[in-house]
């Protein structure tokens, strides 16, 4: 029989309270501390720790989510009002019912300063406001509130499904079945259904009897002008730049018309008004691909997080075990804070999506070449050989460095053959790039089939995306996959833990190999033809001591500036 008792505390405690199990202090003392629950701070129990060699519990872990599924509900329109003017000495005044307000729209906007989708994963349902019903005395209903979903720059939006109740035939289908059961002839069924469909859009004066209601002949529904049109589906947006204006996703229903609209010579007192339109709902998926300038790629425990701490003010977790980092971290290197950092003069192109400053009014980039004052570095969980087969934490996190301008491969000089480690990493990255390209092609093909079969049934009389270049579904032909998507990026190696014994010979071999790659004597470590081999270099550092890290900043800036 399976053991019913939980795992022994000796097994769990090091994971729950790593500070108690640090290298210092006897085991008995540590366990006593845990058992008695003595309230000593962890720093007292550990050796004096530094910022670059922190105690395992000295870190900050911001909330992070890189995927979210949302259900969007645009606001339905408010109903038109059936009302008549009533005043003293005017018992039978003219109709004065107001129109219903339009329903609110749902928009999406990419903004700077956010790095996670966690706020949205908690919301799940996004509802725009309902338009208010019209009222007597010709008072129109208020428009429903719009909702703007703000997402970080780098978010990809994919529409999964949509439902448009105005075109939904489920109700009429069920009525058709009911009528067929009563054995009516087919022609009368269709006529009745058409009548019923028409009546669905109207509201009748509540005071009238059912026999009177049947006698009412409603006119043809008037055609309405719309301010907003529903973008055709399936929507796919790559929000790789901050969007100056929100992008429309789901349009609210238009409000109904009040009874004064239906006055005619023959019909002085219309006892009906139109209902507000029902609104569209859709399911979308958000996927965040962080946009950092430099992406750190390395095996677990290579020292990536320590390096991030050495280069930036990040307080990411560091620990002497594999998979300390479980989610991506972004750090910012400030180039001109005049506090000991090398003051570098660097320029970036203003159309770089990672750093573009947009004019708040026009939404256009401010100027062509802008002085770079900072750049960002992304640290992701470690990759292991076979990560593309979902070993370790898989390669899911590679999408966060996929769009980085420069890749930095962090190799531990104390963990065996550095060249072998670099080749293994490039192999995984290459396989990931292939996988992504195939996925992208499959999606493109699917989107093309959908477009030609008229899946987008809604009217689109213009371009409703302010940044038209972002509609991926409309890109006609993708070039054949080459694997160059990632391999063409500039890259360099950070050979870390240079303070360990045997680091030097290992580093020499690595440098000789990279020189050969630059000369063209050796192929690119990923094996991809035409990959970037312009100036492959390895920078030796001891991140734990903060030695050699300034060179990384200079080198990174050089590669970013191109
Ligand atoms: N001697 C030495 N140790 C280092 C150096 N850099 C990092 N370490 C140690 O290596 C261990 C792993 O460091 P991390 O920065 O957590 O490694 P990581 O690559 O982020 O690991 P994962 O998040 O698991 O992928 C820690 O115990 C660090 O103190 C270094 O330059 N020299
Ligand atoms: Mg780490």
Automatic annotation (TrEMBL):
GO terms for biological process: ribosome biogenesis. It comes from Schizothecium vesticola. Residues 292-561 form the OBG-type G domain. Keywords: GTP-binding, Nucleotide-binding. This is GTP-binding protein Obg/CgtA. One of its GO terms (cellular component) is mitochondrion. Residues 37-58 are annotated as: Disordered. Belongs to the TRAFAC class OBG-HflX-like GTPase superfamily. OBG GTPase family. InterPro entries: G_OBG, GTP-bd, GTP-bd_Obg/CgtA, GTP1_OBG_dom, GTP1_OBG_dom_sf, OBG_GTPase, P-loop_NTPase. It comes from the Eukaryota. PROSITE patterns: G_OBG, OBG. GO terms for molecular function: GTP binding; GTPase activity; magnesium ion binding. Residues 39-51 have a biased composition (Low complexity). Pfam families: GTP1_OBG (PF01018), MMR_HSR1 (PF01926). Residues 62-291 form the Obg domain.
């Amino acid at each position: 029989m399976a053991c019913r008792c939980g795992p022994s505390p000796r097994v769990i405690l090091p994971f729950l309270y790593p500070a108690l199990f640090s290298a210092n202090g006897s085991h008995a003392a540590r366990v006593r501390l845990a058992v008695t629950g003595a309230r000593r701070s962890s720093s007292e129990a550990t050796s004096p720790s530094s910022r670059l060699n922190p105690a395992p519990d000295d870190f900050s872990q911001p909330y992070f989510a890189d995927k979210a599924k949302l259900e969007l509900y645009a606001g339905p329109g408010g109903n038109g009002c059936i009302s008549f003017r009533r005043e003293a000495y005017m018992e039978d005044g003219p109709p004065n019912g107001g129109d219903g307000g339009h329903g609110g729209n749902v928009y999406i906007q990419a903004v700077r300063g956010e790095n996670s989708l966690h706020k949205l994963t908690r919301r799940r349902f996004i509802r725009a406001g309902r338009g208010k019903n019209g009222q007597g005395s010709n008072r129109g209903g208020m428009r429903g509130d719009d909702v703007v979903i703000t997402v970080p720059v780098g978010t990809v939006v994919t529409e999964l499904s949509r439902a448009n109740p105005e075109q939904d035939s489920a109700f009429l289908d069920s009525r058709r079945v009911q009528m067929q059961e009563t054995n009516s002839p087919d022609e009368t069924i269709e006529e009745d259904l058409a009548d019923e469909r028409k009546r669905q859009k109207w509201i009748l004066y509540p005071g009238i009897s059912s026999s009177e209601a049947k006698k009412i002949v409603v006119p043809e529904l008037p055609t309405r002008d719309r301010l907003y049109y529903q973008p055709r589906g399936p929507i796919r947006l790559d929000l790789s730049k901050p969007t100056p204006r929100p992008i429309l996703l789901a349009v609210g229903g238009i409000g109904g018309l009040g009874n004064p609209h239906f006055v005619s010579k023959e019909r002085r007192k219309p006892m009906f008004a139109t209902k507000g339109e029902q609104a569209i709902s859709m399911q979308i998926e958000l996927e965040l691909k962080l946009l950092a300038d430099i992406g750190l790629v390395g095996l677990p425990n290579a020292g990536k997080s320590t390096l991030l701490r050495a280069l930036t003010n990040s307080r990411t977790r560091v620990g002497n075990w594999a998979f300390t980092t479980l989610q991506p971290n972004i750090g910012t290197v400030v180039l001109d804070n005049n506090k000991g950092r090398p003051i570098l003069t660097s320029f970036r192109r203003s159309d770089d999506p990672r750093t573009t400053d947009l004019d708040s009014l026009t939404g256009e980039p401010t100027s062509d070449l802008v002085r770079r004052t900072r750049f960002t570095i992304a640290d992701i969980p470690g990759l292991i050989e076979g990560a593309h087969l979902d070993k370790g934490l898989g390669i899911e996190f590679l999408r966060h460095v996929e769009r980085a301008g420069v890749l930095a491969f962090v190799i531990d000089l104390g963990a065996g053959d550095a060249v072998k480690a670099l080749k293994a990493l490039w192999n995984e990255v290459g396989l990931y790039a292939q996988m992504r390209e195939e996925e992208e092609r499959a999606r493109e093909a699917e989107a093309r089939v959908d477009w030609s079969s008229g899946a987008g049934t809604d009217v689109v009389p213009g371009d409703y995306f302010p940044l038209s270049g972002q509609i991926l579904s409309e890109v006609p032909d993708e070039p054949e996959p080459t694997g160059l998507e990632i391999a063409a990026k500039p890259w360099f190696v950070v050979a870390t833990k240079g303070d360990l014994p045997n680091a030097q010979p290992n580093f020499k071999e690595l440098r000789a190999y990279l020189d050969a790659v630059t000369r063209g004597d050796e192929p690119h470590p990923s094996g991809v033809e035409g990959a970037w081999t312009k100036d492959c270099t390895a920078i030796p550092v001891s991140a734990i001591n903060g030695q050699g890290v300034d060179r990384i900043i200079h080198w990174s800036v050089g590669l970013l500036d191109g």
